[in-house]
Amino acid sequence: MPNVSIIIPAKNEGQGLPAVLERLRAVLAERPAHETHEIIVVDDGSDDDTGEVAAKAGARVERHPYSMGNGAAVKTGMRTARGDVFVMMDADGQHPPEKVPDLLDALSGYRMVVGARTLGTGTGAHRSLANFVYNSLASYVVKHPVLDLTSGFRAIDGASARRFIYLLPNTFSYPTTITLAFFRAGLPVRYHPIAAAKRTGKSHIRIVRDGVRFILILTKIATIFSPLRVFLPMSAVAFVAGAGWYAYTFATARRFTNASQLAIVLAVLLFALALISEQVAALRFDRSEPQR
Questions:
Q1: Which CATH architecture is the domain 4-225 placed in?
Q2: What is the per-residue pLDDT across 235-288, written as a single tens digit (0 to 9) for each?
Q3: To the nearest 10°, the Cα dihedral for 265, 267, 272, 277?
Q4: Which H or E element spans position 113?
Q5: Range 44-76 burial, b when 16+ CB lie within 10 A, else e
Q6: pLDDT digits (tens, 9 = 90+) for 114-147
Q7: pTM of the model
Q8: Cα(189)–Cα(111) distance, rounded to whole angstroms?
């Protein structure tokens, strides 16, 4: 039974995958003898020889009959993994295999270690700006600094990860979901700096399409994990607007307008919605706790 399962989602990565696997095997060979490993490559409906080159390199290959998404590939890897610890990394060469031991060593005392990309490595200026926005929003939601919300390079306690498989989307946004889930569940998360390389081959991410989708997913999962942080500011804005407009109209015309009434009622409804949503979120995580 392996101690560590290394999960690599791959779609049309036949060009760069052999070099990644070769470097990874060289690194794992230097690990202590009591630490055993398995490498799982999930071929997400590739049109090239991704699955064949992975099998030839000695990896265990799980295949999707058609492309189901990066997140779906990671979930397949989690479900079939036999290790106690999962390491997720990309097949395109951005995540240095030489840093896998650092993530594993840093996991001591934590449930997840994220390889946080240092500024300006592995991404262009537009993606660095987008990641800054994402990280800032996530930090606000979880009330803890989030250094790299979208990094797919991470080591995770397997039992903890399996608790949240049902929440993970099938797209590239799975790192966001599992990060917020761990913070919400009170599981300690650590960030370890890495210098990401430029990917081999063509990226499957589309900036506009996936950027808009990512913002929508981030908003959705923020309301799932920490609804008070979303609805309370909206309620406060509505109340201040209503009360402020009432103060103005009363001072100038001795009137209480419909607009003021609507804004204040909206504030009350949003506040009630925040309380109810928070209770629902708490019940969701209580039920996800493993039974002993």
A1: Alpha-Beta Complex (3.90)
A2: 999 999 999 999 999 999 888 899 999 999 999 999 999 999 888 877 766 555
A3: 140
A4: strand 112-117
A5: bbbebbbbebbeebebbbbbbeebbbbbbbbbb
A6: 999 886 655 555 667 777 888 888 888 888 999 9
A7: 0.80
A8: 6
